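Friendly challenge for the regulars: who can give me the structure tokens for this chain first? No prize, just bragging rights.
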Amino acid sequence: MASAAEQLAKNANWGALAKATELKQRLLFVLGALLVYRLGTYIPVPGIDPHVWNKIFTQKSGGILDMFNMFSGGALSRMTIFALNIMPYISASIIMQLATAMSPKLEALKKEGESGRTKINQYTRYFTVLLATVQAWGLAVGLENMQGSAGSAVIDPGLFFRISTVITIVGGTVFLMWLGEQITARGIGNGISLIIFAGIVAELPRAIASTLELGRQGQFNFMELLLLFGMIVGVITLIVFVERAQRRVIVQYPKRQAAGGGQAQAQNNHMPLKLNTAGVIPPIFASSLLLLPLTIVGFAGSDGGEFTASIARFLQHGQPIYMMLYGGFIMFFCFFYTAIVFNPEENADMLRKYGGFIPGIRPGKHTASHLDYILTRITTVGAIYLVFICLLPEFLISKYSMPFYFGGTSLLIVVTVTMDTIAQIHSHLIAHQYEGLMKKSKLRGRRR
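First reply, four minutes later:
Bragging rights claimed.
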């Protein structure tokens, strides 16, 4: 009986999915957009010898360079038009959000509503182009200075190569920025997160193959391999558990006049506060900030001097400075992004406007202080969880030379984006079923 009921439920869900034409169109659009993105990660930058570059990248791989390659979906290791991926846009978004929090003019612009947010998004796009141009120029100059055993990766170095490389890579970044916005508007889920998600997932089979090859070469034995995959399963389980965890604040609404003239009972509701309100944003922001020095450090070559060599050494995985910076950035962006997403004063004013209150707490300023106290405690727990998830695998990567696709940051992005996308698909299905029920009720009313 249970299996039959489960089969009926599955058939009902598939039937609802088959009837949801708009949802199917959105899913097909997302798949098509991600396919275009993956094709772009194989279009090489003009003027690069791919064989020589592959050897140079293999020699310089390790540390923060591999993390950059993970976020680009392997585009950096192939030196394609999407070598910078969407990272300049993420860095520009960070800087604009920091500027909005500190600048009264930008704060006032944000409070204007949709028109103000549109202007801020436009400023973010302009800053993305500027940031991508600087990074692409540093990348082009660094490529000319790189020498491998087979010579230089640049076939014909010079000003023309630098300009063409900047135009190509900046154009690729701007295209990905536009593609991410289109996925958000016309598809399912957050476009920027889905682009990073697609790049990580596409490289997972290669990462699994390289891990098994390391085991075959004796890098670690069979038991260590089982413990590794057991750790991955444990990390995924912890991510799912914490991402679904909530702190429910009880909210009570006063008695209202019923339609028949009597008194309706007071309504009890709750305000759900996620344990990890910031989601996957803090690790992505922290990684993008750590990737910014890559323009100077990773591609400076022998002309960088002792200073850049020291920075490159300190930014290697397993180094205390890298761990401190990465963990510190994650903690900072957890509190910063949570403060942007959830404003206790605005929520307290909204509760007072609709007559709601938290039992035992006076409305207004006391409610805002109470919400801020709860949010600070759960954000602290969420930040510690993110630091633990992102730094624990880094020690194993440093010790066993594991691929970055098994790191805490990549697993967090994959699991969180998957959960968010499934939730949005589920909400679309519920909305479609609700519309169907409303149409049926109207038809029955007309027949009567």
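The chain has one domain: 2-447. DSSP finds 18 helices and four strands in the chain. Your move, everyone else.
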